[in-house]
Design goal:
CATH superfamily of the largest domain: Bacterial extracellular solute-binding protein, family 7
Strand content: 15-25%
Helix content: 40-55%
Number of domains: 2
Protein name: TRAP transporter substrate-binding protein
Structural class: alpha/beta
Low-confidence stretches: 1-25
Strand order of the largest sheet: 1-3-2-4-11-5
Number of strands: 12
Shape: globular
Organism: Oceanobacter antarcticus
InterPro entries: DctP_fam, TRAP_DctP_sf
Order of helices and strands: EEHEHEHEEEHEHEHHEEHHHEHH
Keywords: Signal
Number of helices: 12
Distance between the termini: 42 Å
Radius of gyration: 20 Å
């Protein structure tokens, strides 16, 4: 079923100046398709994708119309979404960078353990980092935004995870390559899996632990399939996940300059910050949902968190070494990412 953007005309969350009524909108001159992997009831769909598409339509005075297709309705697999935008089978796509391990190497620094702060802070840092360091990775698309969500936590079936030893032998969803390596070092058995598959995997016992941020708990009913959630103490989370919001370059370039400006005005660091802020709000709601369902929320002590950090350090070191092998300065990239997160974290 096609989900179109104008069903949420009144739900704009991203600041809109000079709202235009339906009667004032002209017939669209340019019709685009926006494709993503999450279900239509997800808040990424209802609070980010639809409002963004509607904002473009309103600010273009109806000259641009964007149909939003959730849940892979246009076909393909989540790992193919970036290439759908690159090749033009969809005009705009939103996907997880980590679904294609090794492709966006520099962005992986934001997925390393104990790197990510809040989604709003980390997304701004990542967007600036991409502008400085990753222009070549996105030369074939119009990058609208690169961002992260709320930091990942561990949702467990059965006995809760109070210490690292509790992970021994458990089958845990790995959100990206770095965290798969971390979980293996901690004694768990990592399994790569897109987020939408986790509900079924938990219910069938394919997974013991869902490594997942709070913002997607509700739509996937993770709180109904698990009994406890483990969080990390401190101002950096266990991990972050990088997302790509991309537009086909030909679709962008066929727009006249004034409509390209509409896209530009709704891209970049302000868009990344807005996406991050919405995802933080969604994460807070997800945590409340977990708590209200009666599930145990375990917060690791500072000492235990330090133990996890020390165990994960070889993964960070290995990433820097790999970047050095590729002719990059891994340590410099790691330090710059940390510097940017600290910088945006200090802003009022």
């Amino acid at each position: 079923m096609k989900i179109i953007s104008n069903i949420l005309r009144s739900a704009l969350c991203f600041s809109v100046s000079g709202l235009i009524t339906t009667g004032q909108l002209q017939a669209a001159e340019f019709n685009f398709k926006l494709h993503h992997l999450l279900p239509p009831m997800s808040e990424v769909h209802t609070k980010i994708m639809l409002p963004w598409a509607e904002k473009i339509e309103q600010e273009s005075n109806g000259r641009i119309h964007i149909d939003v297709y959730p849940a892979m309705q246009l076909g393909g697999k989540p790992a193919q979404l970036f290439d759908q935008a690159r090749k033009g089978s969809a005009d705009i796509t939103w996907t997880v960078a980590g679904y294609t391990p090794g492709r966006f190497r520099k962005s992986e620094v934001f997925e390393l353990p104990f790197m990510a702060s809040s989604a709003e802070v980390t997304s701004q840092a990542l967007q600036q980092f991409a502008t400085e360091e990753m222009t070549d990775d996105f030369r074939e698309v119009k990058l609208l935004a690169i961002h992260t969500n709320a930091t990942g936590v561990l949702h467990s079936r059965g006995k809760g995870i109070h210490k690292m030893e509790d992970l021994a032998g458990l089958k845990i969803r790995a959100p990206n390559k770095a965290m798969a390596e971390v979980y293996a070092l901690m004694g768990a058995s990592p399994i790569f899996m897109p987020a939408p598959q986790m509900s079924s995997a938990l219910s069938k016992g394919v997974l013991d632990v869902a490594s997942l941020s709070y913002d997607i708990v509700g739509p996937l009913k993770i709180h109904e399939l698990t009994q406890s959630t483990t969080e990390i103490s401190g101002d950096r989370g266990l991990y972050g996940q990088v997302f790509l919001f991309s537009m086909n370059k030909k679709s962008y370039l066929k727009l006249p300059k004034e409509l390209q400006q509409v896209i530009d005005n709704n891209s970049g660091i302000k868009l990344a910050a807005w996406m991050g802020r919405i995802l933080d709000e969604m994460g807070a709601k997800g945590r409340t949902l977990v708590k209200d369902s009666g599930n145990e929320i375990i917060v690791l002590s500072a000492d235990e968190t330090r133990h996890w950090r020390e165990t994960a350090q070889p993964v960070i070191d290995a990433w820097m070494d790999d970047m050095n092998s590729d002719g990059e300065d891994g340590k410099k990239l790691y330090q710059r990412a940390n510097q940017l997160i600290d910088q945006y974290g200090r802003k009022p």
